[in-house]
Amino acid sequence: MEYRKAKAENAGEIYGLVQATIKAVYPRYYPREVVDFFCRHHNLEHILADIGRGDVGILKEGDQLIGTGSRDGNHITRVYVNPEFQGKGYGSHIIEILEREIGRDYDTVNLDASLPASCLYERRGYRTVKHETREVENQAVLVYEIMQKQLDPAAFGTDVQRGGTDVRAPHMPHNAGTRGEG
């Protein structure tokens, strides 16, 4: 198993994995309009832009794409695991790698979690700092959590001067963990 930075040629495969995961898992938690919102939000253009900034990683076993993770500063923005591999720790592995990357420069990690993902993140030490909603279309409402985790500088073995918290306006939830959370 290998986690590495994604390249532009991985974009189609990442897009396929993200779309398949959203369509397989999110209908259990959200109405169709919210599922459609997530699909539109995680489009190929957004994925390519994130890859271009060097913010996307992929987890592969041989030629099989297991999952993907993205970040923007200290904000985890997209974690998705192939539904066939969910519940086996791959999402937690991706999150751990992203936390290590973020921990080199920041004291905290922020993320927006969909309803099914919040439990995964709570188990990893995240706490909900705010509940959010967003009406998407046809009066359907997206409900999500803004979560944060304080990082332990010693855990990352770095003496680098770090930048504290990068608090931005809330992102739309565009991360998902194992079991299709996001």
Structure, explained:
It comes from Enterocloster lavalensis. This is Ribosomal protein S18 acetylase RimI. Residues 1-152 form the N-acetyltransferase domain. The protein has a single domain (2-180), classed as Gcn5-related N-acetyltransferase (GNAT) (Aminopeptidase). With 182 residues, the chain is α+β, with helices and mostly antiparallel strands. A seven-stranded mixed sheet has the order 1-2-3-4-5-7-6. Helices cover 30% and strands 29% of the residues. A hairpin with a 2-residue loop joins strand 3 (64-72) and strand 4. It is built from five helices and seven strands, in the order E-H-H-H-E-E-E-H-E-H-E-E. Mean pLDDT is 87; it is low at 158-182.
Structure keywords:
single chain, 182 residues, alpha+beta, Aminopeptidase, 7-stranded mixed sheet, 5 helices, 7 strands, globular, ribonucleoprotein, ribosomal protein
Number of helices: 5
Binned strand content: 25-35%
What integer is the average pLDDT? 87
Order of helices and strands: EHHHEEEHEHEE
Radius of gyration: 15 Å
Measured distance between first and last alpha carbons: 23 Å
The number of distinct β-strands equals 7
Strand order of the largest sheet: 1-2-3-4-5-7-6
Overall number of domains: 1
SS class? alpha+beta
CATH superfamily: Gcn5-related N-acetyltransferase (GNAT)
Write the layout of secondary structure elements.
Layout: E1 2-5, H1 11-25, H2 32-41, H3 44-52, E2 56-61, E3 64-72, E4 75-81, H4 90-103, E5 108-114, H5 118-123, E6 127-135, E7 141-150
Parallel strand pairs: 4-5
Antiparallel strand pairs: 1-2, 2-3, 3-4, 5-7, 6-7
